[in-house]
Amino acid sequence: MYRILSESVNNYMNDPATEGARRKGMSPICLLVDARRYHEQRLQNTPLYHQTQELLCFLREASAENPRLETLLWHLESRRMLPPETIQLSDESRERCQEQVRILKQLISLAYWH
């Protein structure tokens, strides 16, 4: 699944139809498919890393209702991309993460598989 997600993210980012608003908020998702970059951002403790941690936290919550998201989370955890144990999501963060998870669901359902 991780390979499919990685290729789907690449296809999504290179699709002219996804320019503009549809790409807004894709940075944390892009970071999830680049383990080396993820761990570099973690070491630097960047804002992008924090947004990605929020996404992982929200993904853990959403995975209870969606087995595909649970499988994705397992793949991410195997790459040491772990959701934080304690994090409080603001309303703004929760809204952003909902949109990101919606996109992730499309990506793992092969919507952008070419």
Sheet with most strands: none
N-to-C CA distance: 15 Å
Residue stretches low in confidence (pLDDT < 50, at least 5 long) are: none
Shape: globular
Strand content: under 5%
Question: Level of helix content?
Answer: 55-70%
Query: What is the averaged pLDDT score?
Result: 88
> What would you report as the Rg, rounded to the nearest angstrom?
13 Å
Number of beta-strand segments: 0
Q: What is the number of domains?
A: 1
Q: Helix count?
A: 6
Order of helices and strands: HHHHHH
Alpha-beta classification: mainly alpha
Short description:
The protein is mainly alpha-helical and 114 residues long. The protein has six helices and no strands.
Describe this structure in words.
The protein has one domain. The protein starts with a helix and ends in a 6-residue tail after the last helix. The protein has 114 residues and is an all-alpha fold. The mean pLDDT is 88. The chain has six helices and no strands. The chain has helices at residues 2-14, 27-32, 35-44, 47-63, 67-78, 91-108. It is 67% helix and 0% strand. The chain is globular, with a radius of gyration of 13 Å. The longest helix has 18 residues, at 91-108.
